[in-house]
């Protein structure tokens, strides 16, 4: 056999393996099969100017909801809203400024929303960052934790005031399988006070999303708000812009692996299902992968850690009595 022939075999072999892996990802992706309409409902989706958030917003708009795109970049959100309006023929798509990494911005956004809206049915905590340089916000929060956990924590707590009015609603927080990378969560180091561990930061924020969801579901039940559910979702590997500000090496790694990843439309399916499907009605405090209930890491199941994280978060965001809707 000539060298060329061997190379051809290796080449064909590699292409087949890559193809098979890609096909596997496609086939296990999961799809929201619900055709339910949600006319009259109001939905807030953070980070919805692109990616999974955008696809989720578009889908909910198509189903008749009034959709609020809550984004840091208002101009980009406005363009996204215009595109969704055009594509879905739903004119009730609104872009609003929200920098979820800033507690002040969260409070401002909520104050405006409570004035303008009389109900809230769906809240999707989707905005997130990964692989950022070490940054402490002017509110002394570490940027990953500020954006991925503390901001959504405050946003959800305040907006529960609006959701409670109707007594039913769905809160979906976008987590990730990356939460399994970490085996511990030091509550005294959430804002990198003691140590800066860039590799595990994203994982820890995604773990926090699950713990937050579990404790939120428990508190909703305890407060007699069983019509409001909270779930965390792992969208799977999705081609997203989450790493757009990431350091170079991280970026290249992601770019290569993205070849296998889902499109944002596919990646949005599990989130959409949790927002609208009748099949998940009443299910709460759960972690989902590819539209199916799944297990988180052991740490993600630990209700003592979940409770401690909640209490710590109340302290960090200085949740006031009037912002606490789960008394
Ligand atoms: C909640 O909203 C639905 C749909 O608009 C409505 O039928 C229901 O009466 C509302 N419930 C409360 C308690 O306001």
UniProtKB/TrEMBL annotation:
> Mind listing the UniProt keywords for this protein, alphabetically?
Membrane, Oxidoreductase, Transmembrane, Transmembrane helix
CDD domains per UniProt = retinol-DH_like_SDR_c_like (cd05327)
Keyword Iron part of the UniProt annotation: no
Q: Which residues belong to the signal peptide in this entry?
A: none
Any Pfam family: adh_short
Residues spanning the membrane? 6-25
Keyword Transmembrane helix present in the record's keywords: the answer is: yes
Protein family membership: Belongs to the short-chain dehydrogenases/reductases (SDR) family.
Write down what this protein is called: Retinol dehydrogenase 11
């Amino acid at each position: 056999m000539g060298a060329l022939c061997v190379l051809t075999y290796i080449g064909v072999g590699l292409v087949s393996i890559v193809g098979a892996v890609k096909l596997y990802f496609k086939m296990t992706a999961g799809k929201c099969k619900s055709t339910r309409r949600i006319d009259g409902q109001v939905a807030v989706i953070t980070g919805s100017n692109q990616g999974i958030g955008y696809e989720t917003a578009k889908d909910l708009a198509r189903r008749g909801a009034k959709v609020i795109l809550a984004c840091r970049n208002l101009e980009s959100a406005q363009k996204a809203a215009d595109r969704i309006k055009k594509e879905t023929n739903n004119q009730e798509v609104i872009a609003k400024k929200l920098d979820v990494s800033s507690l002040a911005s969260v409070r401002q956004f909520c104050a405006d929303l409570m004035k303008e809206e009389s109900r809230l049915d769906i809240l999707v905590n989707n905005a997130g960052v990964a692989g950022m340089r070490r940054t402490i916000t002017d509110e002394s929060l570490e940027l990953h934790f500020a954006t991925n956990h503390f901001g959504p924590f405050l946003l959800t707590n305040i907006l529960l005031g609006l959701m409670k009015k109707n007594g039913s609603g769905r809160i979906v927080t976008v987590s990730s399988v990356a939460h399994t990378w970490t085996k511990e969560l030091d509550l005294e180091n959430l804002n990198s006070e003691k140590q800066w561990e860039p590799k595990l930061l994203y994982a820890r924020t995604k773990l926090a999303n699950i713990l937050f969801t579990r404790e939120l579901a428990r508190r909703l039940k305890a407060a007699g708000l069983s019509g409001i559910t909270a779930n965390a979702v792992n969208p799977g590997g999705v081609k997203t812009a989450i790493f757009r500000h990431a350091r170079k090496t991280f970026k290249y790694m992601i770019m290569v692996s993205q070849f296998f990843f889902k499109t944002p439309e596919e990646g949005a399916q599990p989130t959409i299902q949790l927002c609208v499907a009748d099949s998940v009605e009443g299910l709460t405090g759960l972690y989902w992968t590819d539209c199916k209930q799944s297990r988180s890491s052991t740490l993600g199941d630990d209700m003592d850690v979940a409770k401690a994280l909640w209490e710590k978060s109340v302290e960090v965001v200085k949740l006031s009595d009037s912002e606490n809707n789960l008394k």
